[in-house]
Automatic annotation (TrEMBL):
Belongs to the PPR family. P subfamily. The lineage of its organism: Eukaryota, Viridiplantae, Streptophyta, Embryophyta, Tracheophyta. Pfam families: PPR, PPR_2. It comes from Cucumis melo var. makuwa (Oriental melon). This is Pentatricopeptide repeat-containing protein. PPR repeats lie at residues 1-34, 35-69, 102-136, 137-171. Keywords: Repeat. InterPro entries: PPR_P_subfamily (IPR050872), PPR_rpt (IPR002885), TPR-like_helical_dom_sf (IPR011990).
Length: 220
């Protein structure tokens, strides 16, 4: 299987996708079943040449034949190549079939939306996670915080921070760095600092206060 997968990967990287698919058929005919690495190589090839129909067909084929875990791993490939819209379409397909994505898959999608500037869609997915009983983790929160900050949506950052307080989410140094970055761009949101004593990571408050009192000349 390893040899076949390596050959398929090489063909895909060279843009020889027809040959790669034929080799996949030969592989299966010989009773050698491909794994997620094989499918990832094919998905990369389809994304590289913008063959989105084939990318969609590959996902649906895996999904319909019960290889749901292999199908979910393709979201990471699609995100890497900026094919977020098709990934979003396929994610909804999973939900329609009663197979809700886990937190890892959702984080991949949220990160993908944020990277292409579609932070509003990322936020919609975040809200759907909670509705469907998929609990966001610190990676989810940090990804959205960073997305809002990059999109200069400071009010959304503040709202998101309030959510973390309400849900008793333990923020980390990455969370604090994101807030520091936002405050450097827009000092009127100093109210964010008032939230930090309520976070489980209060030790960061001193560092942030010191970082901002001097350079931005905030007034208490």
């Amino acid at each position: 299987m390893v040899t076949f997968t390596m050959l398929i990967d090489t063909l895909c990287k060279e843009g020889k996708l027809i040959e790669a698919q034929k080799l996949l058929e030969v592989m299966i005919q010989r009773g050698i079943f491909p794994d997620s690495c094989t499918y990832n190589s094919l998905m990369e090839g389809f994304c590289m040449v913008d063959d989105l129909n084939s990318a969609r067909d590959l996902f649906l084929k895996l999904f319909q034949t019960g290889k749901v875990d292999d199908a979910k791993k393709l979201f990471g490939v699609m995100k890497t190549y900026g094919k977020v819209e098709i990934a979003w379409e396929l994610l909804k397909k999973l939900s329609q079939e009663g197979l809700e994505p886990n937190v890892v898959t959702c984080n991949i999608m949220i990160n993908g939306f944020c990277k292409v500037g579609q932070v509003d869609k990322a936020n919609i997915l975040f809200e759907k996670m909670e509705e469907n009983g998929c609990t966001p983790n610190i990676i989810t929160y940090n990804t959205l915080l960073h997305g809002f900050c990059q999109s200069i949506k400071s009010e959304e950052v503040v709202n998101h921070l309030h959510k973390t307080v309400q849900r008793d989410v333990s923020l980390d140094t990455i969370s604090c760095t994101i807030v520091v970055d936002m405050l450097c761009k827009d000092e009127k949101y100093r109210e964010c600092l008032d939230l930090f004593p309520r976070f489980p990571v209060q030790k960061h408050q001193i560092d942030i206060e010191c970082s901002f009192e001097s350079p931005l000349n905030f007034q208490a």
